[in-house]
Each structure stands twice: as structure tokens, then as C-alpha cells.
Amino acid sequence: AVEHLLEANLDSIDKIASDPAGSQTKVNTEIESVTGKKLSEAAISSAWKSLTFTADPVPSALIKAAKDAKAVGLLEDTDLTGIFDLGPLNKVLEAAGKPAVNAS
Fold first, then answer.
1. Which of 58, 66, 94, 98 is most buried by a 10 A CB count?
2. pLDDT tens sequence across 59-97
3. Cβ within 8 Å of residue 93, ≥6 positions away
4. What is the DSSP secondary structure assignment for residue 33, as one 8-state letter?
5. Is 65 left (phi over 0), alpha (psi -120 to 50) or beta?
């Protein structure tokens, strides 16, 4: 089940990359269904340029956030070793001919 979910996520990321205009339209339609109002095409297009769609969970971001939280007293010393199991994701990435991700 996990591999199928990861495969579907990769397929979605590939679709977004291959059809950004169509993907923007779909996102805007969903925004309208939730809020009752669409964003302008210019707003969606501009925002899209700042987005990166990736299957990589970017473990380094969580590790940095924990260190920053500790530095300002919001978190005690926390061992995040092993929090990410990238094995299933890397298996799906390899089958798709894509580079593996790592936990650092």
C-alpha cells in the first residue's frame, strides 16, 4: 500500500511537471471549491514559480528545525535518528529511474 501511494505521488509530480498550465488550472478550481473564489491566473502563475514539487521529504529541514527550536528554548535535545525510513521511497524512485534521496 505504501509503495502504491508513493508511486501515485511520483505520477502526480510528473504530471505537474509535464502540464504546469493544466495543473495550475486544477489547483485554482480546487481553491474556488473551498473558498468560493478563484485566484487570478497571474497570481497562480506567479506563485507557481516559487514552488518545488518533489518526492523528497527533505529530512535536513526537520533536523534544522529541531536544532533551531532547541536553540531558542522551544525543544529539549531531541534525537531524530531513524525518524525517516526512505527505503520504500528509494525503491519506488529506483523503479522509476529517478535518483534516490538521503536522510542527510
1. 66
2. 889 999 999 999 999 999 988 988 899 999 999 999 999
3. 10, 55, 99, 100, 101
4. H
5. alpha
